[in-house]
């Protein structure tokens, strides 16, 4: 099968690239997705929050894509009838050092043009969230909750209407460079393409390595597990309650999110997954686990005492519900273990460099008629429209 452009991966990023390519060019575009259903991985297993951009440094790619992405996603959801509730987020500080960090966030929000309000007493916090505890908070009204699965399916419908061929149940097993393009072996036959977009999420590094790209990086899978607040206790959180982010730590701590279906989810934690798709804490993929444990970058990452402590805390939250409950009680002291029932999990495709750094910014590599998206890092859902457009423009320029 021949197509001018073949995109591997039908998550929100791959489909957004397809959408923008079909709008910008007349090329014959195909998307190859290994699963029979869409949104089976990161794009359908997340918190579904549109992050308006107050916690990313001014001028960074993350800030630019998140700010633009939030407003474009809201428009897109309104136009396409996708559930999206703009009820804002409350970032709560528990002590003086966290309160000082809130001031940094406020300055960043100001610089990025993101709306915010600083609340400096428990009384003001309780006007927003009657059960939240803290001595100060930043309220960002533009944060919103979206149904990420409906969003992915809508993108898929839209690109198919625009003439893109979407193949589900086609796993790319081998990528090879050939004269004038690429040859792709899949579980359902062979494809050829002049241009390749690698948007394979948790497997993007594996495909890139096959053609000698991004060899100093590897995906290390970090599982994020959620609990759901039982419906009878769901009034413990009205909107979204977040801890103050710690710039030293790679992931935000456990937080509360009201989803568009009214469920309150608590999480995610961030524990090393024993496989790229090991969604349960008893799942093990020996090959993936071996690759992670023998990866130089991972070993260097774990040489930091801080990372070992974080890893230990997160493992405890995964295997001991009382530890997860304790983390949840930091924000909402009235929550009890029996209010929480186990829910779904997602796995972050966290890119780690061979010198042990967690790559924090979005990263893509252009090479010989191809774009490899190696790090569509969170808030990748929020950013997916401008990020996908940027990749499509990069490719259109080559052509
Ligand atoms: C727990 C968690 C919470 C998050 N919360 C948020 C949030 O609240 N807000 C936010 O903005 N972002 C959030 N994110 C980040 C966001 O979900 C991701 O950045 C985004 O979904 C990445 O999209 P993607 O298309 O790159 O990846 P994916 O959705 O993983 O898509 C990649 C696709 O490629 C397919 N694929 C892989 N290998 C192959 C192959 N060999 N052949 C064919 N197909 C293949 C996969 O099946 C998959 O469908 C969260 C992520 C996680 C894990």
UniProtKB/TrEMBL annotation:
Keyword Flavoprotein among record annotations: yes
Pfam families: DAO (PF01266)
This protein's record includes keyword Protein transport: no
Keyword terms: FAD, Flavoprotein, Oxidoreductase
InterPro entries named among the record's database cross-references: FAD-dep_OxRdtase, FAD/NAD-bd_sf
Top-rank taxon: Archaea
Domain FAD dependent oxidoreductase: 4-393
Required cofactor(s): FAD
UniProt family annotation: Belongs to the L2HGDH family.
Protein name: FAD dependent oxidoreductase
Organism for this UniProt entry: Halococcus salifodinae DSM 8989
């Amino acid at each position: 099968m021949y197509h001018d452009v073949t995109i591997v991966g039908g998550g929100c990023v791959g489909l957004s690239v397809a959408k923008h390519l079909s709008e910008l060019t007349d090329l014959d575009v195909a998307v190859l997705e290994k699963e029979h259903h869409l949104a089976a991985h990161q794009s359908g297993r997340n918190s579904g929050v549109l992050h308006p951009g107050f916690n990313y440094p001014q001028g960074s790619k993350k800030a630019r894509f998140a700010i633009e992405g939030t407003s474009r996603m809201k428009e897109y959801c309104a136009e396409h009838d996708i559930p999206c509730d703009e009820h804002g987020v409350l970032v709560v500080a528990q002590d003086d050092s966290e309160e000082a960090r809130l001031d940094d966030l406020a300055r960043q929000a100001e610089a990025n043009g993101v709306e915010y309000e600083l609340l400096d007493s428990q009384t003001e916090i309780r006007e927003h969230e009657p059960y939240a505890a803290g001595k100060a908070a930043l309220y960002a009204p533009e944060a919103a909750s979206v149904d990420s699965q409906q969003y992915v399916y809508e993108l898929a419908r839209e690109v198919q209407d625009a003439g893109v061929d979407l193949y589900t149940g086609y796993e790319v097993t081998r990528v090879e460079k050939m004269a004038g393009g690429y040859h792709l072996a899949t579980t359902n036959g062979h494809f050829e393409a002049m241009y390749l977009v690698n948007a394979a999420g948790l497997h993007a590094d594996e495909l890139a390595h096959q053609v000698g790209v991004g060899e100093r990086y590897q995906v290390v899978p970090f599982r994020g597990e959620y609990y759901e607040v039982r419906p009878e206790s769901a009034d413990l959180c009205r909107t979204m309650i977040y801890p103050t982010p710690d710039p030293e730590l790679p992931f935000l701590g456990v937080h509360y999110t009201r989803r568009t279906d009214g469920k309150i989810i608590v999480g995610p934690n961030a524990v090393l997954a024993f496989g790229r798709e090991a969604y349960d804490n008893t799942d093990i993929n020996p090959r993936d686990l071996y690759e992670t444990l023998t990866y130089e970058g991972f070993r260097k990452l774990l040489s930091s005492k801080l990372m070992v402590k974080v890893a230990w805390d997160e493992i405890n939250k995964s295997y001991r519900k009382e530890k997860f409950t304790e983390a949840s009680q930091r924000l909402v002291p009235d929550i009890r273990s029996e209010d929480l029932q186990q829910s779904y999990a997602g796995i972050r495709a966290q890119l780690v460099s061979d010198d042990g750094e967690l790559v924090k910014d979005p990263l893509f590599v252009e090479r010989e008629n191809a774009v490899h998206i190696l790090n569509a890092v969170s808030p990748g859902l929020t950013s997916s429209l401008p990020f996908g457009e940027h990749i499509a423009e990069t490719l259109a320029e080559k052509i």
